[in-house]
């Protein structure tokens, strides 16, 4: 007996919901590392070495979330002595859209601060908000990429009369012992071991062994080895889940017809699909082709990154 169209649509929606959940980065090493105050403190000291007397007690509101959905993501926010540091981990692919993401993250975080401190945004009294600092950790090849990127140059042809925002890019330096450099080195060792052993437990164990021997995140890995193994094996599961839906991450801008067959059906399913593919880094033009909708429609769906439940 053939399955009814409504049942098919429901199963497709659930499959994509499962994929979206699996793709959540809440279990990433980035999140697990920097949600610990002592490593958050080291992160702050890396960008502010002049603050020699800052302590863990000065680190407040360490949060890791994604303002676009209710999932956690690789976005880190913390307050230190009146400063608000917002930091993103950027994958090895370079994108200036990080600036917009940080802008939205900043607005969201300021709004939460105003609400939490019960300030009147409509009153005449000037609001008391923490001073922002915006960073991106880039784990790919630096090449000739800049230390600073800014909104006006990338999006408004250099016009900064009404709005400007600058983001400092942290690349780390191989062999250095600051926490950013160690984290970047860790990711590079990880990719080397995956190339050698594939997505296997052996690759995970070798990553941890090599990093310990090279004094890369040694203390963290010694304390959290079991958790790190689980996190990294879960990452492999995420990647397998993507491949099961025909998404070839190695082939930029392409997707197998297997996904195309799964997005037929209700508009809600198409919106969920667009959200999932956007979270995986697919360009909007390609998403529009996959879901068979116009670019303007997809942009409208993703403008708030709102998940539509079927």
How would you describe this structure in keywords?
310 residues, alpha/beta, 6-stranded mixed beta sheet, 12 helices
Describe this structure in words.
By secondary structure, this protein is an alpha/beta fold. It has helices at residues 5-22, 29-34, 37-47, 97-116, 151-155, 179-197, 201-213, 218-244, 257-262, 267-279, 284-291, 295-302; strands spanning 59-64, 75-80, 83-90, 131-138, 148-150, 166-170. A hairpin with a 2-residue loop joins strand 2 and strand 3 (83-90). It is 50% helix and 12% strand. The chain is globular. It has 12 helices and 6 strands. The chain has a 6-stranded mixed β-sheet with strand order 1-2-3-4-6-5, sandwiched between helices.
Helix and strand layout, with pairings?
Elements: H1 5-22, H2 29-34, H3 37-47, E1 59-64, E2 75-80, E3 83-90, H4 97-116, E4 131-138, E5 148-150, H5 151-155, E6 166-170, H6 179-197, H7 201-213, H8 218-244, H9 257-262, H10 267-279, H11 284-291, H12 295-302
Parallel strand pairs: 3-4, 4-6
Antiparallel strand pairs: 1-2, 2-3, 5-6
Helix pairs in contact: 1-10, 6-7, 7-8, 10-11, 11-12
